[in-house]
Every structure is written in structure tokens, then in C-alpha cells.
Amino acid sequence: MFEKILIANRGEIALRVICACKELGIRTVAVYSEADRNSLHVRFADEAICIGPAKSARSYLNVPSVISAAEITNVNAIHPGYGFLSENADFAEVCEMSGIRFIGPKPAVIRLMGSKQRARSAVAAAGIPVVPGSQGILKDADEAIQNAGHIGYPVILKAVAGGGGRGMRIVRSAEELPPLFQQAQQEAAASFSCPDMYMEKFIAAPRHIEFQVLADEYGHVEVLGERECSIQRRHQKLIEEAPSPCVTPELRAKMCDLLRNAMREVGYTNAGTVEFLMDEDGSLYFIEVNARVQVEHPVTEFISGVDMVKSQILLAAGERLDTCVPSPLTLRGHAIECRVNAENPVTYTPSPGRITAFNVPGCVGVRVDTAAHADCVIPPYYDSLLAKLIAYGRDRGEAIARMNRALEMFIVEGVDTSIPLHQRILADPDFLAGNFTTDFLSRFAANGARTV
Predict the structure, then answer these.
(1) CATH code reported for the domain at 207-443
(2) Catalytic residue among 233, 252, 292, 367
(3) Is 164 left (phi over 0), alpha (psi -120 to 50) or beta?
(4) Domain 132-201 top-level CATH class
């Protein structure tokens, strides 16, 4: 087992990793930017090192600084959390070359999954259904027009190295394609230093379903059920739940079998999430693999009883899967997560600033993952996630009731939050019925009134 782990992240996920390490008896090293000097992950780690200025490019994304901090503190492993360097194959490779274990998949697998086009081909070869699309990287707009003619409009252009909705454009006609292709390329190059694009058939108003995978280094793979992630804005998830209201036991069993085989064939290890779109007929189509722990992992922890972060650490240390996941795995109850963001609940614009009052809800079936507290400052340099509020119940109805109670008792003053938006969503009849798709939030006009 590792003696000391460096957490190459910040905020609530850094605290989450510190908690897992404390339970395993592992010492921790926090890295922080100048803006995070007084953050809780700095306070609760055993050691802490400043790695640069506030901007993430000069701190949390600065590979030499992170590796130097790891070498100075003599750690055995690095946990990247999510975001930042978590899916950076080069960083994982540098860790391994430095004699430091990267807690995640192997660099070659991260690199494979980081290319959406190559990942599509790999999982399709293993029997996973994929959305019809281009067979390779599109070299220019003319080739994109040819492919769109075969696929049929509407299509969606996607950055090969994309994520978070950047480098994506929906195209509804051949006339639209050249300028949108150029826009998507430019955005992809600016965001990911890679302008390569591919194309898929655009599925209008799908559901977004993802499956949680854990795998050890001995060929054992388990799928911990699925999560419903269709409530999102600007391609960013806002509410997640497990299990999905629309996935039948038969479909779940089928997909879990397919995914066990597919992940084994590509040599996947550690934690990962396989994301799908579901069309109106209930068919699932592969989108991508996130080779890391997800923001929404707590809902899976609730229904499976598996500690995802401790499992990541144990698997990276060479433990077998059965030390992390019970056999047979049984999924129980229902869990919902609301991402409480420091942002305007109508316009979604970030709301950085000082929190003047902060009260988190508790009681049965409620969990709050956060690094915020009264008098802390939410800086403008990073993601607006303030806290993750998770509610668990025997069934979906009880989970929603507990979430409503928790949202009412969650008090944040000094900055705007998304709590009012969450309350509107949970009161919506279609949400309560489990009848929604990724365009759900379009029904709310700028003034908060329903439009459909």
C-alpha cells in the first residue's frame, strides 16, 4: 500500500481524496495555487506546497511544478481527481517515468480514450453500439460535407480531444457546415491544442446515460450500474441520479455484460465512466469514456455501497477487484445529486465572492461534499462548483423528498447559487415523472417561467 499520496487538484474532490487516504492510513500532500492558500484541502492535508499563481495554467496544470512537489515530498502516488490533469496521458506517463504511481488508467489507455474517434472504433470492435459517424478525422470542410451526405442531416461536429461541450457544433444543412466547421476547429485548438474534428449523426433531445466501471490489473471488470445525467445546461451536468428512471433491468444487464467485455478487451484498469446517448426508441449509443472519477460518483456510492475513491487507490496499489466490490454486487435504493454552483440561477453566469453565511443540511440520507464554508472566498479562476448535495432513499420518491428538504435547509449568502433552479426542477411534473431529455432546461425562459 502507498505511504504518501499527492492530490493534484483542489476543492471538494481534493478533500474527498484526503478523507479516503485518512481511512486507509495514507499520508497526504496538497498542492495549491496562491488563490487557494487558505483552502480546506490545504488545512487538512498532512503537507501542502504552493505550486504557482492563481491561473490554473501556471499552477494546477503546470506538470513540472506538480512533479517537483511530488518529488520534494517523496510521495508514492498522485491522485489527479477530475478535471485539470486527470485525463492527461502525458502527465500519467511522466508520473510513471518518475517512479510515481498515477492513480488512474495506464497512459496508453488514457491516450486511447482521450481520442473520441479512436475510442469509438475500439468499443465498436468490442460490440458496443456507436452513433453513426465519420470513420476518421475530417481533414477539411469538404470531407465533412461528403460524410454528412452519407450520414444524413442533422449532424454534430465534435473535437477529437473535446470535453465540456467545447469544439462542438450542430449542423443542419450543407450550407451551414463550412463556417461551423471552422468555428469548431478554432475552439478545439484553443481549448485542447488539437483542432482535429470528427462527425456523428445528431440525435435530437436524447437522454444522457452513463455507466460506472471499475477494473483491476488482473482482467477483472465490474460495472456498478448506470447514472441518469440528462439534466444539464450548456453540456454541463446539473443533476444526476442513479439508477436511471428509463433503464430497465434487462437493458442494464445487457449493457453491463457488453461493457465488462469491452473494457477487458481494451485493457482498462482503475475507474472509468462510459457515456451514452439514448434515443426516443430507448436505444443506447456510445459517446465517450471518461478515464477518471466523475463529479457525480457519490450517487453510485450510495446505491452500490462501494467507496469509489478508496477503490481507485486500492486498485492502483495492485489490489484485486474483489477487495473493493462485493460479489455478487447488489444495487439498492435511489440517489440524486444536485451540483450547487456559485452562479446566477437564471443566466448561469458565475458568481465569485465571499460567502457570508453557510449552513449545510444534514439528517438521514443526505450528504454534502464541499470545500466551502462561511467567510471563504470563491475565486473567479476555476469551475463554479460550490458543493455537491446528495440525497438517498429507498426509492426515487423518497430521494426527491429528502433532496427537497435538503435544498430548503441549504443556506448560502454572499454569492448567488443554483439552489433556486434545483428547486424549480424538482417541482416540475415531467422531472417527477422521470420524463425528460437533455433539452429539459430549455423550457425555462430567462424570467424562470415555463415555455412549454
Answers:
(1) 3.30.470.20
(2) 292
(3) left
(4) alpha beta
